[in-house]
Amino acid sequence: MKKNLELIKLxxxxxxxxxxxxxxxxxxxxxxRLASSLSDVEIFxxxxxxxxxxxxxxxxxxxxxDRFIISKPHGAISLYPILADxxxxxxxxxxxxxxxGSFLGGIPDTTVPGFETINGALGHGLGVACGVALxxxxxxxxxxxxxxxxxxxLNEGAVWEAIMFAGHHKLSNLILIVDNNKISMLNYCKNIIxxxxxxxxxRVFKWKVKIVNGHNIKELYKSLKELKKEKGNYPxxxxxxxxxxxxVSQLENDILCHxxxxxxxxxxxxxxxxx
Amino acid sequence: MNNNQxxxxxxxFIETIYERMRKNHSIFFLSADMGAPALDKLRRDFKDxxxxxxxxxxxxxxxxxxxxxxxxxxxxxxxxxxxxxRAYEQIRQNLSISSQIKPLNVNLIGLGAGLSYxxxxxxxxxxxxxxxxxxxxxxxxxxxxxxxxxxxFVDYSIKVKMPKYLRFDGKPLPLIYGGxxxxxxxxxxxxxxxxxxxxxxxxxxxxHRALKVAKRLQNVGVIDMFLLKPVDEKSLFEALKKxxxxxxxxxxxxxxxxxxxxxxxxxxxxxxNVKLKNLGFNDKHIFEVGxxxxxxxxxxxxEESIIxxxxxx
Lengths: 275, 313
Description:
The complex is a heterodimer.
Chain A: H1 2-28, H2 34-38, H3 41-49, E1 67-70, H4 79-85, H5 125-138, E2 145-150, H6 157-168, E3 174-180, H7 189-192, H8 198-204, E4 208-213, H9 217-229, E5 236-241, H10 249-252, H11 264-273
Parallel strand pairs in A: 1-2, 2-3, 3-5, 4-5
Chain B: H1 9-23, E1 27-31, H2 39-45, E2 50-52, H3 57-69, E3 73-79, H4 80-86, H5 88-99, E4 106-111, H6 129-134, E5 140-142, H7 147-159, E6 164-168, E7 189-193, E8 198-202, H8 206-216, E9 220-225, E10 227-229, H9 233-240, E11 245-253, H10 259-269, E12 275-281, H11 292-298, H12 303-311
Parallel strand pairs in B: 1-2, 1-3, 3-4, 4-6, 5-6, 8-9, 8-11, 11-12
Antiparallel strand pairs in B: 5-10, 7-9
C-alpha cells in the first residue's frame, strides 16, 4: 500500500512537471496544439512512469515492448518531456521543438524515438492497432497494444470499422484509451455529433468498458492495472473523462481552445499556477 | 505454354501466394469481402492468416499496415476503385508516408482495372488508379498484361519490402509472356514486338489491343509497360529512341499523370524529337452501357480506330 502511495505521488509530481514543460514548449513553438496536449498528461504519465507500458528507450524495436499508438498526436506534445525524461532522446531537444533542424515537430511522427506510427490525419490509429494486435496474437506475443484516441476523432467512420473489427475478432490484447475531453475544434462534441452514451456503443460492439476521471491519477492507475489484468476475451476501452486545456484556466474556459495560442506572459503565469 | 490459355491474373497470383504461404508463415492475405476461385483453398487452409475484414476498404489498409508494422508480408485485396480511392488517405498516411521512415511490405491488389467491370458503370470503372497511385512516394505500381507476369510478381513482392499497388484486370486473358524467358521484372517493360517507325507503348489490358493492331500492320513495335513506378528511365529511353512516332495506349484517363505523362517526361528529359500521341479516356466518366469493346469503340480505342490513327500519321 505504502509503495502504491509513493508511486501515485511520483506520478502526480511527474504530471505537474510534464504540464509545465508542455507550456514551455508552447512558448517556443506556438503552433503546437496546447489544449489537446493538456487533457492527456495524466494518461501519459501513468502509462510510462506507472509502468503500465513495457518499453525500453535503449532498444526501440524490442519485441517484448507494448505498442503504444497515439491516434491524436497533435495532442501528444506533452509526451515529449516524458520521453526525454525517460531517455528516448536528449532533454536538450525540448528546447528546440519546432525549430530548424529539430526532429520534434508540431505533430509527432516516427522520426521521434518512441512513436510507433504516423497519425496526423485522424481516425487511423485504432485500425492500425487492430492489425498490430492481430500480428502479436499470431506471434503468441504477450505484448499489448495501447491506443490513445480523442473523442472528437470518433466522428471518423474508419474508427467504427476498427471498433467493429476488434470486437468481432476478440482482440483481447488491445487496450484503447479515449481522451474524452469533450471539445472538438469548433464546439462541444455533443453539439456536433452526440455520441452519448459512448460506453453503450462500445458495449454493443463487444468491448469491455471502464470509465474513469482522467485527471485522477489514483483512479487512472487502478483502472489501467485492472484492464491489463483482465483475462476476458474481448478488447478493452477506458473512457477517460478529461478537461481540454486542463490546468490552464484560460483554456479550460474557452470552447475554442483547440487552436488557441497563449501569449508569453499567459504561459509564465500558467506555469506558476501549476503545483 | 499454350498462349491461348485464358486465366485471370488474380487466380494465377493467388495460387502462387498459396504455395508461398505454406512455407512462409509471415504472409497474411486480407480481403474486403472480395473473392476469387483460387482464394477458396487459401481461405480454407490458412484460417489464421486469411482475414475477411468485411466491406471496409479503409480498415483493410489499416489492418494491413498494423500487420506490416509487426514485420508481416501482407496482401490486401479489393475492387480497384475502392481500395485506391476509398482508402486513399489510409494509403497516403499509413503506407506512403510511413514507409519513408519504416518500410512496410503491404501489397494492395486492386481487382478490375480500367473497364474490366464495364457493365457495372462509372462507380466500378477505374480510370484514375494509375495516376493517383503513381504520385504516391515510396510506392511501386505494377500493371501486368497477363497472368504469367502476375504470377512472376509474387516472389518480387515478397522480396521488395515496400508498399505496392497491383493493378489486376478483372477478366480472364490469354498469355502474352508464355514463350518469353528473358524478362527482367526490375526493368519494368518489355519490347514485345520490334518495329521501325511506330511504337505502341501500352499497359495492362491495352497491350492485348496493341499487339492485335501491330500484327495487322507492318513494322509497328509494341512495348508493354508493367512497372509504372519505379521506371528504369535509361533503359526505356534506349528502347524508345529508335522510333519516330510513339503512341501510348492506356485504359485510363489521359493528361492526368498516367502512362502518357511517364513517357512524355522521358522524351522531354532527353529532348527526343519524336511524334507523340496519347490514347486513353478523356476527362469524362462513362455512362454508356455496353461491353468493354463497345465502350472502347465509343472512345476511339478499338483496333480499327487505332489503325486509322497510325495510317494517318
